[in-house]
Design goal:
Helix content: over 70%
CATH superfamily of the largest domain: MFS general substrate transporter like domains
Number of domains: 2
Number of helices: 14
Number of strands: 0
CATH class of the largest domain: Mainly Alpha
Shape: globular
CATH topology of the largest domain: Growth Hormone, Chain: A
Largest sheet: none
Structural class: mainly alpha
Order of helices and strands: HHHHHHHHHHHHHH
Oligomer: single chain
Length: 413
């Protein structure tokens, strides 16, 4: 039944799926207990997150293709099972290699398959509110760490130990992702919300032409948005990966650090995904990306300048995470708008590889520049420079249009 009420259950499904998957961002909660238990170094444990991000991004392309061809159920079901299994198996960790496989590879695969489905499903159910619906669904990914990070750090690990915590989380995530998988279904072919007529002149109006993956790759807009996505998220991920050691270096207490990293940042991330998605319905996808990346360019050095002023630091962290979350949400909405909903899974999968590259560049910049200068000034200013280049790319990007003859290479603003 394709009623206005039933389609919102698809949002609930995407939210449930992404709340579980988003615990990837809470990885830092497990770092200290693992290092203490096994005597590992930070350089060793940081590779776990990097592997997970790269596997996640690469898997997304394959998962997007499977989702487009066979529908969202089996793809999301596979993702839910894998991410739950990955967490559960982490409870038996005895070596770094084992952890690389369980959290990095299995967890990364689960994220790729699970995250590939909500955006195309929302795009098909909500052509009238695409930015808001996608934002709500993927907002769960930003909020997951705000819920399960503190729960693990403050309750589960102290009371039950690290191994049991991984098992508990694996069980919780299994229930959440299976529920999400059953709710994530495509609408009937040709579905339109009751009373809705496409607004051709709207800033967020979707294309009526369904670009194939090959055609998408032949539009200059794809590459401009890819570079902007990669560099904009590199800036955000540099801050995310270095926030804990940076805060410690300026004298932030452990309690304040926990609140900042796991709650303030996660709330900013989720807010950016949801509210920027909603704004992009009104103002246009590219316009919102330009504004938020521009703000990010300014916020990076301000975050460094905030130093040990906790209130200012919290505000700057919230803004940086908001701008980062915006890119994950609005790029997801822009893909079906610009290149069509039919192949949105693989087309966004190709664009999403930029995030995987950012997962390598961002943390690497922070670590290398800190080791070289023994402070974070160069890292934060480099992040600002990356965001500035991303902004230039977004300014040059144009909405792809198709002529009556199907000339998909022709573009206009």
């Amino acid at each position: 039944m394709a009623s206005g009420i039933s389609r919102w259950w698809r949002v609930v499904g995407g939210l449930s799926m992404n709340l579980a998957l988003g615990t990837l961002y809470a990885w830092s909660v497990f770092v200290a207990p693992l290092e203490e238990q096994f005597g590992w170094k930070r350089a060793d444990t940081s590779m776990v997150f990097t592997i997970a991000v790269v596997v996640f991004a690469l898997t997304f392309v394959l998962a997007g293709r499977i989702q487009d061809k066979f529908g969202p159920f089996y793809c999301s079901l596979t993702g839910g099972i894998l991410v739950s299994l990955g967490f559960f198996l982490c409870s038996y960790t005895t070596s770094l290699t084992y952890l690389f496989v369980c959290f990095g590879v299995i967890g990364g695969l689960g994220n790729g398959f699970g995250y590939a489905t909500p955006i195309p499903v929302m795009a098909k159910w909500f052509p009238d509110k695409r930015g808001l619906a996608v934002g709500l669904a993927v907002g769960g990914y930003g909020a997951g760490s705000a819920i399960f990070g503190p729960l693990s750090q403050l309750k589960l690990i102290p009371h039950y130990g690290l191994s049991t915590t991984f098992q508990i989380l694996g069980g919780i995530f299994f229930v959440m992702t299976i529920l999400g998988a059953f709710l994530l279904k495509n609408p009937p072919a040709g579905y339109k919300p009751a009373g809705w007529t496409p607004a051709v002149a709207s800033k967020s109006a979707a294309t009526t032409y369904e670009f194939s993956p090959g055609e998408t790759l032949r539009t200059p807009t794809f590459y401009l948005m890819w570079v902007a996505y990669a560099l904009g998220c590199s800036a955000g991920l540099m801050v995310i990966s270095q926030l804990v050691p940076f805060a410690k270096s300026v004298g932030i207490t452990a309690a304040a650090l926990s609140t900042m990293g796991l709650v303030v940042g996660a709330c900013g991330n989720a807010s950016g995904r949801i509210l920027s998605g909603w704004m992009s319905d009104k103002l246009g996808r590219i316009n919102v990306l330009r504004v938020m990346i521009g703000i990010s360019t300014i916020a990076m050095p301000l975050l460094y300048a905030a130093g040990g002023d906790v209130a200012t630091l919290y505000l700057a962290v919230f803004i940086v995470y908001w701008c980062y979350g915006t890119q994950l949400s609005v790029n997801g909405s822009a893909t079906p708008d610009f290149w069509g909903a039919k192949n949105a899974g693989i087309n966004y999968g190709m664009l999403f590889t930029a995030w995987g590259v950012a997962g390598i560049i961002g943390p690497r910049i922070g670590g290398v520049l800190y080791d070289k200068y023994h402070n974070y000034q160069a890292a934060f200013y480099t992040a600002a420079a990356l965001a500035a280049v991303a902004l230039v790319c977004e300014m040059l990007a144009k909405r792809p249009t198709v002529s009556a003859a199907g000339d998909y290479s022709k573009e206009s603003r």
